[in-house]
TrEMBL record:
InterPro entries: PBP/GOBP (IPR006170), PBP_GOBP_sf (IPR036728)
Gene: Obp99d
Keyword field contains Signal: yes
Keyword Signal attributed: yes
Domain of life: Eukaryota
Family annotation (Gene3D superfamilies): Pheromone/general odorant binding protein domain
GO MF annotations, alphabetized: odorant binding
Protein name: Odorant-binding protein 99d
Signal peptide: 1-24
Keywords tagged on the record: Signal
A Pfam family of this chain: PBP_GOBP
Amino acid sequence: MNHLRLEIICWSCLLIAMAVSTEAASVWKLPTAQMVYEDLEKCRQESQEEDAATLRCLVMKLGLWTDESGYNARRIAKIFAGHNQMEELMLVVEHCNRKEQDTSHLDDWAFLAYRCATSGQFGHWVKDFMSQKEVER
């Protein structure tokens, strides 16, 4: 019986170690405007130009969205950390995530939560971020 317990503990430790190393290996990086434009073009083709599906595809590729929890407010706030309003931005994103949550219509959830969050000052920040690419061209 003790042998079985020891084996279960060893397997549990191994699984925990694998999970930690997998998370460490998939370190998220801040997207650049260039990355956004490249992924946006791929997503437009994949979704046949449908806005909500394109948006969800894009934010998934950028690591800003999961179908289980919606937008990752912390990652979004890191992109716009230079505005020194990370906590406020996270609250807005989390509020819009909860308000629009609809796990049976994921594209709509992503689109409506985005529209909600970008209806104020954050929307101007997104436009400024995306205009960085325009300057580079």
